Every structure is written in structure tokens, then in C-alpha cells.
UniProtKB/TrEMBL annotation:
Topology class, membrane: Multi-pass membrane protein
Superkingdom of origin: Bacteria
Gene3D superfamilies: Spore Coat Polysaccharide Biosynthesis Protein SpsA, Chain A (3.90.550.10)
SUPFAM superfamilies: Nucleotide-diphospho-sugar transferases
A Pfam family this chain is assigned to: Glyco_trans_2_3
GO CC, alphabetical: plasma membrane
Subcellular location(s) of the protein: Cell inner membrane
GO molecular function annotation: hexosyltransferase activity
Transmembrane annotation, as ranges: 52-75, 81-105, 394-417, 447-469, 481-501, 559-579
PANTHER family from the UniProt entry: CELLULOSE SYNTHASE CATALYTIC SUBUNIT A [UDP-FORMING], GLUCANS BIOSYNTHESIS GLUCOSYLTRANSFERASE H
Record-given protein name: Glucans biosynthesis glucosyltransferase H
Organism the protein comes from: Litoreibacter ascidiaceicola
Key words of the record: Cell inner membrane, Cell membrane, Glycosyltransferase, Membrane, Transferase, Transmembrane, Transmembrane helix
InterPro entries according to UniProt: Glyco_trans_2-like, Glycosyltr_2/OpgH_subfam, Nucleotide-diphossugar_trans
């Protein structure tokens, strides 16, 4: 059979094995009678104190310092709001620092090895939901994972399902041909299935719910993947073993590393996640314990537990009735924990990967969808029975976006106040001093604020790099000591340049969500969209205008020059955005920059996936060409 011959009409799905999947009531508590008691680790409370107490104490000290500084003529309501904004933004920065510190300490502790007792055999479904994705990438990854699992010794049974919600008929035809090609080429004992829904009710949530209700009864666990997910055979087996050994676990989340980045912006994200993410992930896993979170993919879930307690209801908000819960993963993790099941995070599992948006605009477009979903969680905080840590995860996800408007407000005030009473924007245009007893902003105080702010923002990066170099890849896998230092400095500079732009874009995302703008949940442009100058200019108009106004205010002497780094970033938003898509892989020297182990010494699963993607792409494109002729 050839890929351009008749598409196979073989049965693409196994016999149905239904499983009840009731919708949960968020207004009443629920406990799953099948959930065993969770292990009690007395040290968890100490780790949580070690994480949150320093953040609370340092934030309290900052509040006291600013209150004393502002209170020269008595505190006004406006000054109180400013102090609250400062405290809010600083607390989350401080919490990040303390989480990384806890992670660093935890990484230095010896690992307790699990006993050599074999894991009970598990029937596991690998689920790959897709929606108008590039077929050769999806099926290439699937082929690589299945072949590696087939070569690895284990007691488990794995079945991979491609669950298509694709609406584009051309892509759907390619999916069928890719499935037929893999089914013909893979050994008969490798289980691979494909299903395309007639409609895509409830998007990914409905896609997975359809599988659970129709086939979930036949599998002990399901390992949920994204269309761009890739996991080594050993990573899949390790997660499966861990769930088999821990009967209290309802969900175990791995820590996906980024791979495949070729552009400047993609490489910055990949390098940052690899170098700084390890300690942050370790710290989060340590204090979260059995109250962890779920990121929607690269996680193994106990099927019966999920079906019993994680059916998502529609959500009534003040803007809409019966709304679909968009960022479903956080809520599903909370529902599992509410029912008595443990939700764990295992960052030490290696070989779990996902891809990354290639350009700044692609990242922002994805971020807008996530913003809408995460802010929706504020309507769920009061749900009955959620564990306090679950509520914190939900609130933390929303605050990740709400902090940008807070930062934007603080920087706006700083710009308006300018150099003090005699030189500020308000006095310049109205002749009146602002009704705020703002302290004198001399060179020393401005410098102190900048050093303090950037010091706290950069501290997790240096701590994370120290942690990774101790327990992560060797310097050889990072291109050598000199290359690593160059990449480290480059990442900091590029991140500082893009941070103000992302702050403005997240502020826009929050505003769009607040006014009720419905984001279109379209497939990600994983290879990067191509955007012309006019499109980029329209997209970054607000940043460009804001940056130009800041620069103009500085030239008039009414805005402090200490805001120049932020002003430059905003004013240059358009060229920086266009630069974000520059392909570093075009030249040998640039291809090394911001490289990680996935670049310099790519694991076998990544090399295999790339080969399979290329092979399937050639066959499918040749088939399309023959069909067109």
C-alpha cells in the first residue's frame, strides 16, 4: 500500500468499553470512595513554611519601608493603593525566589531510591488530541514514541490514540493517510488507533471526555499528550511505574522540557526553561506534595479516578451563563484532589518534551487564550471542597496575568511623577503639583529601586543556573563553559528587552478578557507565523506609542532617565518583534547560541522524531502532488 493509494478502511478504533463520566457539582463536596488515604509526610508543612514565610516576611518589611517613606505628610488613599500594588508585585517575585531556593536545597539532598520491586502491569492509553495540526509532526512523534516503547523492556501495555477534532478536510485526509502509513509500517503488535469526531463539541475537554466515556473502561491509566508533545519510552514507563506503585495517585505530572526551537525568541524560552526551570520545578514539587497541579499534557492520570470526579460542569459568570471552562487542567487537578486522590509533580522524570511558540506574536496569541482561561478561575475559587493549595494554584494562575497591569500601573505612576515636585508630567501640562506627597526621587533612590527590582527578578536565574550546573547536563552538553556563559548573558539581555513588551501585551490580554472579548482558540503556529511590517506595527502600536512618549518626556527633562531601558524596549517593540522570528539555525555560529542539551546532544527520541516527521512529510506531500495531477 502506498500513501497516495486508496485510504484504508480498516477498523481504526477498538471495541468500545464505556465508563461513566458524571459532571461534577462545584457547589457541593465530593469524596471518591475508591480513593485510599494519602501518605502523610510531616516535612511538607516545613517545606511550605520555608517557601512562603520568607516571601511574607520580606514583603512585610518592604511594606513597612515604603509606608515610612510615603508617610512624610500622611498617607493618602492613592499612596495606600500604590503601597498595595508594590507589595503585591513584590510578593510574587519573592515567592519565586524562595521556591527556587527550596528547589536548590532539595536538589542537593540525596534521592531516596525506590525499592526494586517490579511495578504491577498497567494498561495505559496514550492520548493525543489534535485540531488542525501538521499531520507529519503529530504522527512522526507518535511513531517515535511507539517504536521506542517497543524496544524497551517493561511489563505494561501501551495503546496510542490519535483523537482528531480537525475541521480542515485537507488536513483530515492527510491524517488518514498518515495513520494508514504508520499502521502498515509498524509491527502488528503495536497498538495504534485513530478517531475523528463529527463535531468538536467542547473542544479538547469534549474530545477527551468522548474517549473516556466510550473507551476509558478498558484502561488503568491514560497519559495525556499535546499535539506537540514528545516523551521518551523511559519517561513514559517511569510515570507508569510510579502510578502503579502509588495507589493514592490520581495524576502525576512530568516537567516538559522545550525542544525544537530555531528562532531567537524560541531559543530564549528553551534556554530559560532548561537552565532556570529545574530548580523552580523542584521547589514547586517539594512544597506542593500531593496537592500538585496539572498542565494539561505530559501527565499520567488514573482513568477510573478521573472519570469518577473530574467531569467539568459549565460555568456561570457575571458575563456569561453556561460557559465552557477553558483552562480545564487546573480545575481537573483540583477536582481529583477534592475527591481524595493525590496530584503529584515529578520534575526528576527526564525525557518529557514539548515545543514552543517561534515568535513573539505567536507567543502573545497563545498567551491571550491562556489569560482568558486563567482569569476564569477566579469564578471557581469559592467552589466547595477544594483543598487550600488547590485554591492557591487557581489564584496563582490568575495572578500570573494580573501582575502585568499592576506593574504597568506602577511604571506609569513612576513616569508621571518624574523627577519630583519641580519636574513631572502632571506639573508640566497643568501647572499643578500632583496631590501625592511623593518622596524626592533622587539618583540614589532611583538607582536603589532599579537595582532592587532587577536583583529580585534575576536572582532566580542565577540560583537556577547554579542548581542546574550541579545536577543537570554537563557543560559539554551546553556547548562548553564559554558558550554557556555567552548564552546565559544573551538570555538575560534579550529577556530584559522583551519583558516590557510582554508586560504591555499581558495588560492588553487582561483588558480584552475583562471587556468580554472572546479569544479564538485556533491551532498554534508552531513553526511561527509570517507577519509583515504593517501587521507587526498594528500589533505593537500601544507599546510603540508608550515608548515614544517616554523618550519624549525624558528629552524634555520631566521623566526620569532611569526608565530609559523600559522606554527603549517599548519604542523598539516593532523591530524587536520582527527580530524574534530570526532563525538562528541558518548559520553555524548562530545555531550554537542559546543552545541546550537538546541542541548539542539531542536525545535519541528527539532524533528519531525528527527522522519520522521528515519521512512522513515527504510521503504525504508526494501523495498530495500526485492527487493534484
Amino acid at each position: 500500500m502506498t500513501a497516495h493509494g486508496p485510504i484504508t478502511r480498516m477498523p481504526m478504533m477498538p471495541p468500545e468499553q464505556p465508563l461513566a463520566f458524571p459532571v461534577q457539582d462545584l457547589s457541593s463536596d465530593y469524596r471518591d470512595g475508591a480513593a485510599p488515604d494519602l501518605p502523610n509526610d510531616p516535612s511538607t508543612r516545613l517545606w511550605r513554611l520555608a517557601t512562603f514565610l520568607p516571601a511574607i516576611i520580606t514583603t512585610g518589611g518592604l511594606i513597612a519601608a515604603f509606608t515610612d517613606w510615603f508617610a512624610m505628610g500622611g498617607l493618602s488613599v492613592f499612596e495606600g493603593i500604590l503601597i498595595a500594588l508594590i507589595a503585591c508585585t513584590f510578593f510574587w517575585i519573592s515567592l519565586s525566589v524562595s521556591t527556587v531556593t527550596v528547589g536548590l536545597v532539595n536538589m542537593m539532598r540525596p534521592r531516596i531510591a525506590r525499592s526494586g520491586k517490579p511495578a504491577p502491569a498497567q494498561d495505559v492509553a496514550l492520548l493525543v488530541p489534535v485540531y488542525n495540526e501538521v499531520p507529519w509532526d503529530v504522527f512522526g512523534n507518535a511513531c517515535a514514541m511507539l517504536e521506542e516503547l517497543d524496544r524497551t523492556q517493561h511489563p505494561h501495555s501501551f495503546t496510542l490514540f490519535i483523537l482528531s477534532d480537525t475541521r480542515d478536510e485537507v488536513i483530515a485526509e492527510q491524517e488518514l493517510r498518515a495513520f494508514a502509513m504508520l499502521r502498515a509500517n509498524l509491527p502488528d503488535h503495536i497498538a495504534l488507533h485513530y478517531r475523528r469526531r463529527i463535531d468538536n463539541i467542547d473542544r479538547k475537554v469534549g474530545n477527551l471526555a468522548d474517549w473516556v466515556q466510550r473507551w476509558g473502561g478498558g484502561y488503568d491509566a491514560m497519559l495525556v499528550l499535546d499535539a506537540d508533545s514528545l516523551m521518551s519510552g523511559q519517561a513514559i514507563i517511569t510515570l507508569t511505574d510510579e502510578m502503579a506503585h502509588d495507589p493514592s495517585a490520581g495524576l502525576i505530572q512530568s516537567f516538559p522540557q522545550l525542544f525544537g526551537a530555531e528562532t531567537l525568541f524560541g531559543r530564549v524560552q528553551q534556554f530559560s526553561s532548561t537552565i532556570y526551570g529545574a530548580a523552580l520545578a523542584e521547589g514547586l514539587a517539594r512544597w506542593a506534595d500531593h496537592e500538585g497541579n496539572y498542565w494539561g499534557h505530559n501527565a499520567i492520570i488514573r482513568t477510573a479516578a478521573f472519570a469518577s470526579c473530574a467531569g467539568l460542569p459549565r460555568l456561570d459568570t457575571f458575563r456569561s451563563k453556561g460557559a465552557l471552562i477553558l483552562s480545564h487542567d487546573f480545575v481537573e487537578a483540583g477536582l481529583l484532589r477534592r475527591a481524595g486522590w493525590g496530584v503529584r509533580f515529578m520534575p526528576q522524570v527526564k525525557g518529557s518534551y514539548e515545543e514552543v511558540p517561534a515568535t513573539l506574536i505567536d507567543y502573545v496569541l497563545r498567551d491571550r487564550r491562556w489569560c482568558q482561561g486563567n482569569l476564569q478561575h477566579l469564578n471557581i475559587l469559592g467552589s466547595k471542597g477544594f483543598h487550600p493549595v488547590t485554591r492557591f494554584h487557581l489564584f496563582h494562575g490568575a495572578m500570573g496575568y494580573l501582575l502585568s497591569p499592576a506593574w504597568f500601573a506602577l511604571l506609569t505612576v513612576w513616569a508621571l511623577i518624574g523627577k519630583g515636585e519641580e519636574a513631572n508630567v502632571i506639573r508640566y501640562f497643568t501647572g499643578e503639583n500632583p496631590q501625592v506627597a511623593w518622596p524626592e526621587m533622587g539618583h540614589v533612590s532611583n538607582l536603589a529601586i532599579l537595582v532592587f527590582m532587577y536583583g529580585m527578578l534575576l536572582a532566580p536565574k542565577f540560583l537556577g543556573a547554579a542548581a542546574l550546573l550541579r545536577s543537570g547536563p554537563s557543560l559539554r552538553d551546553l556547548g562548553g563553559a564559554g558558550q554557556f556563559v555567552l548564552s546565559f548573558v544573551t538570555e538575560i539581555i534579550v529577556s530584559v528587552l522583551y519583558a516590557p513588551i510582554l508586560m504591555v501585551q499581558q495588560t492588553i490580554a487582561v483588558a480584552r478578557t475583562w471587556i468580554g472579548f472572546k479569544e479564538t482558540w485556533t491551532p498554534q503556529a508552531r513553526q511561527g507565523g509570517r507577519y509583515g511590517f504593517t501587521t507587526v506595527l498594528k500589533f505593537h502600536a500601544l507599546e510603540t506609542v508608550a515608548g515614544a512618549l517616554l523618550v519624549a518626556g525624558m528629552s524634555e527633562g520631566i521623566i526620569t532617565l532611569w526608565l530609559l531601558p523600559i522606554a527603549v524596549s517599548l519604542a523598539l517593540a516593532v523591530p524587536l518583534s520582527m527580530l524574534s522570528g530570526a532563525k538562528l539555525t541558518r548559520f553555524k555560529w548562530t545555531s550554537r547560541q542559546l543552545g541546550t542539551a537538546e541542541v548539542f546532544n539531542a536525545p535519541a527520541i528527539i532524533q528519531s522524531a525528527k527522522r519520522e516527521r521528515s519521512r512522513i512529510r515527504v510521503v504525504l506531500e508526494n501523495a498530495d502532488q500526485v492527487a493534484a495531477e
